[in-house]
What we know:
It contains 14 helices and four strands. By secondary structure, it is mainly alpha-helical. It folds into three domains: 6-74, Rossmann fold (3-Layer(aba) Sandwich), CATH 3.40.50.300; 86-156, Helicase, Ruva Protein, domain 3 (Orthogonal Bundle), CATH 1.10.8; 162-260, DnaA protein, C-terminal DNA-binding domain (Chromosomal Replication Initiator Protein Dnaa, Chain: A, Orthogonal Bundle). The strands form two sheets. Strands 1-2 form a two-stranded parallel sheet. A two-stranded antiparallel ribbon has the order 3-4. β1 (18-21), α2 and β2 (50-53) form a beta-alpha-beta unit. α10 (162-172) packs across α11.
Amino acid sequence: MHQNKQPTFRRQFRECDVxxxxxxxxxxxxxxxxxxFLHTLEALxxxxxxxxxxxxCHPRLAEIFQPELTDRLxxxxxxxxxxxxxxxxxxxxxxxxxxxxxxSRDVLDLLSERLxxxxxxxxxxxxxxxxxxKVTERAITLSVxxxxxxxxxxxxxxxxALPDIDRAVVTILELPHGALQSKKRNWQISGPRxxxxxxxxxxxxxxxxxxGQHFGQRNHSTAVAAEKRVRLWLADQESxxxxxxxxxxxxxxxxxxxxxxR
Length: 262
């Protein structure tokens, strides 16, 4: 704008065949840039061009975009990105070792089953493994892999505890610390508390009684009822109020689980 080159800038992005934008949340608080991006998006749509954007959460959960831009984003196909499953991790490991000595089946099994993070973690594990093999002048065997990745593997299988669930829920739903233990029964607290109880049963080994006790000294029947309620919400594709907006329960849970995995 300072150099009065808006026409050149617009041509660069509005005459492309495909526009790929990563981390769209970086446009938060940049109102003028969001408006410019919205006009670019509309121009490309009129021409039948392809636009793919990524964001760290569902557009309606972000609460950082202009309403018009949010409407345009949800008008496309919105997909959540899950952590890669063992089969996908195995395929990624094979692809990342292309042109290098192939990993044996037992080493691939170790990496794909025990490393449960994202692609960068897989790449880091391979770098650690290759480095150790090189400096010690050893072949990459199962024992070498176990030695190289001991710390990485221990970190990847961290046990999720009730306080972790608590922290993730209050972080994503922007609640004050300790809100889920309060005696309040209003929907702004009881709804998130039910989500927390559902996730506690899904991700921890805590009993219903332990879950109820952690979230406000409640009995086990409250935790049982909360789990059943959330399952019904998911089956019926219900939405829940997050702040001032309603969002699908499935999307809210996925966002909380992503926070748990950090």
